[in-house]
Amino acid sequence: MSSEPKVLTGMSRRKVLGLLATAPLAALAQGAAAQGLPQAGRPASFVLVHGAWHGGWCWRKLTPLLRAAGHEVFTPTLTGLGERAHLIGPGIDLDVHVEDVAAVLEYEDLHDVVLVGHSSGGMVISGVASVAGERLSQLVYLDAFLPEDGKALSDYAAVPPTRPDGWRIPVPGGIAFFGVTEPEDVAWAEPRLGDQPLATFTQPAQVSGEAHAALQRTFVHCSESPWFVEAASRARQEGFGFHDMLAAGHDAMITRPQELAEVLLGLV
Fold it and tell me: From CA 138, how far away is CA 143, in angstroms rounded?
């Protein structure tokens, strides 16, 4: 007698394998439904761009919620930050960070992308839209700088002091500076913050008004910092979609990932 189990008699091996392959996706979708998250119709591609001193690690609480709803999610770490901190140097500027993200779009062959920029990541996604706008469908500014053409982040906010080398900017005040206060979140995020290259704050952004006008744009307002209040006000005036998450604080992806997921999923 054969010891090999018989699986679903009468069903072809190919069909069985097909069902097994789709089972994890079905389980993920059920998990998202159980959390009350909107379900995917046509899957979207989210590319999440972190802000200064952070890295791709900062999206860890948010990405499972978007993926459980059936979407692709990419969280690139910009050169010199996070697990790429060993590459930090005085020559890393805004252009390098724009190239980092544009390369993800190209090498992953992504189209109709929802490109999300947090904080200084707003400078980056604005540049990406100008060089790779044909791969994008939406820009989402998550409590982010909203640059005008030819202006640098330093035109909107004072640049914190550098280290003695003149080009590394340490985190001003640790993770609490970003509104993260839960002890567990502090213990996780604090050691992952790293220095920011000065040139990423001082190089002017190249913003194509034509490329931006062709995209759906949304601003998610999370803090009362004056530069983000200003950006939020300008976004409203320019007809952006708008969401208020002021209870979340600046690092909403850490403090309120469920609420932020609902906002982002509502866009697709």
Answer: 16
Q: Phi and psi for 116 in degrees, rounded to 5?
A: -110, 130
**First CA to last CA across the chain, in angstroms?**
54
Q: Which one of 12, 45, 119, 154 is the catalytic residue?
A: 119
DSSP string, 161-199: PPPTTSSEE--SS-GGGGT---HHHHHHHGGG---EETH
Kindly list the strands in the beta sheet with 241-244, ordered across the sheet, starting from the edge strand earlier in the chain. Answer: 72-74, 45-49, 113-118, 136-142, 216-221, 241-244
Looking up tokens 């979407």 gives: 71
Per the annotation, the verdict on 130 as an active-site residue is: no
**Residue-level pLDDT at 19:** 39
Q: What's the pLDDT tens digit per position in 94-151?
A: 999 999 999 999 999 999 999 999 999 999 999 999 999 999 999 999 999 999 999 9
105 closest CA partner among 86, 130, 83, 81:
130
| Count: domains in the chain | 1
- 208: domain CATH number is 3.40.50.1820
Angle between helices 121-132 and 94-107 (to 10 degrees): 60
Residue 49 pairs with which residues in a beta bridge? Answer: 117
Provide the domain limits for residue 149.
44-266
Does residue 165 fall inside a structural domain? yes
- pTM reported for the whole predicted model: 0.85
